[in-house]
Amino acid sequence: MQTMRWMVACALAAGLMGCGGGGGASPAPEPMAQVTLSTAAIKQDLAAGDVLGLKLEGLWTFAGTGPVYLQLRDASASFSLPAVQAASPDNRIALDIATLATLEPGKRAGTLELRACRDAACAQPFSSAPASVAYELNVAAVPDWATHQANA
What we know:
- By secondary structure, the chain is mainly beta.
- The protein has one helix at 2-18; strands spanning 33-37, 42-47, 53-62, 69-74, 79-80, 85-86, 92-99, 106-117, 131-140.
């Protein structure tokens, strides 16, 4: 009899441990925002001091309500980037960017990342949304005009 009570107590304890507790409904899934870029990888040659203008294009979608904001980031700091902006109502992405005129001669490689956010400060990005474009810039040194007859 003692063994039977012990077995019932163990079975009850195991059953309660398997219970997730709380009951109630599971949280609603996060709305999905998706960003896709159609711009191919960027590979450009330029001279030091030049500014190269480029356009990033793509589409965005959002399966929710409320505004969506787009933020472009460049960890290698090679481009002048637009401010965070509200996504266009036609779901198109067209961002004008330019290389910085202060780039030093040499090869620069990095990734431009575009993400969708819930707020204008982009403090709450959607986890499903980042898209990226790789870039490689070859910045050539410009000879000194006075010593190399570059103006001849």
